[in-house]
Amino acid sequence: MPSLWQHSLALLRAPGNQVAFALRRRLQWSRGALALGNEAKGGLFAALPEGERRAAAEAAERLERRHDLTALRRRSTQLVFAENLALLDRLSALQDGAELPCGDDGVVRAIDVGCGAFAYATALQRWLRGGGTGPRRPVMLRGIEVDGFGIYRDGHSRADHARAHAALAGSDVRFQVADFTRLDVPQQDVVTLLFPFLSSYPLLRWGLPLTHLRPRLLLSRAVAAVRPGGWLVVGNQSGAEFERLAELLAELPVALSHRVSFASALLPYAERAAGRVGSLWRRQNALPEAGTEG
């Protein structure tokens, strides 16, 4: 929870964020195709105490074997690899053995809203398709990010990175720069929002203008994008943020199915992520009213 001082400092970013975002959107910078780098994974959990290190390494090995993460291991930093492992682990816990919804043709159609650089695309695709020895489901996954043209230290844009991560995840994964709240999308089997902005502090710290803080509209559109019987999967940074999410979703035709901690010892910043919460919501038959902001 940010202090009053931190929140006040973040508010000072608002005018600059507005101008910078407008410039990024107009410029639409891209340096072109990006070759993902790699780091050795041998010391991935070296900072953990011996017992925890062994447990984390064993969990990582099981996930890598179950979900075929060979390509990701060979073309990722330690941080990206660890974050994909942690997300796979927590999504599996959230699913809790339930059958993932799919279309009549057996294809799982999914959208990830606010995907950033989409560095976790492999984890999301692998979770959607299933793992183990059983048949793998066909997947159509699209990541959507409103702020796709921020420039990274390597001179590539966020969209360049996201497209590279999507390509690594599989030919069934795509990335799109768009404002999801203005996008016309067909109904999906699964819609994911991993750490959406429900308050001004994280949004301003990310670099977005306050005009993009529209949690009611965002969630209304997300629920509307889920077919009846489909899943809305949300990650929140804290229990308080989850409670805010639950208040907003109470106005919409979804029902909470499962809630788990999204904290993970597989993350190198596990202490900072200790309060994370994951929740799974099932779409009900009633249609939501048009989203409004207030």
Largest sheet: 7 strands, mixed
**Spatial extent as radius of gyration:** 19 Å
CATH homology group: Vaccinia Virus protein VP39
Residue-averaged pLDDT, rounded? 94
Beta-strand percent range: 15-25%
What's the total helix number? 10
Strand order of the largest sheet: 3-2-1-4-5-7-6
What's the architecture, going by CATH?
A: 3-Layer(aba) Sandwich
Q: Percent range for helical residues?
A: 25-40%
- What do we call the CATH topology? Rossmann fold
* Bulk shape: globular
Distance from N terminus to C terminus (CA atoms, Å) equals 23 Å
The unreliable regions are 288-294
Number of domains: 1
Class from helix and strand fractions: alpha/beta
The total count of strands amounts to: 7
Assign the CATH class.
Alpha Beta
Description:
The chain has 294 residues and is of the alpha/beta class. It has a single domain (4-30, 39-283), classed as 3-Layer(aba) Sandwich (Rossmann fold), CATH 3.40.50.150. Helices cover 38% and strands 17% of the residues. The chain has helices spanning 4-11, 14-27, 50-67, 70-74, 78-95, 121-129, 158-169, 200-206, 215-224, 239-249, and strands spanning 108-113, 139-145, 173-177, 188-194, 226-236, 254-261, 277-283. The protein has a seven-stranded mixed beta sheet. The longest helix has 18 residues, at 50-67. The radius of gyration is 19 Å and the shape is globular. It starts with a helix and ends in an 11-residue tail after the last strand. Mean pLDDT is 94; it is low at 288-294.
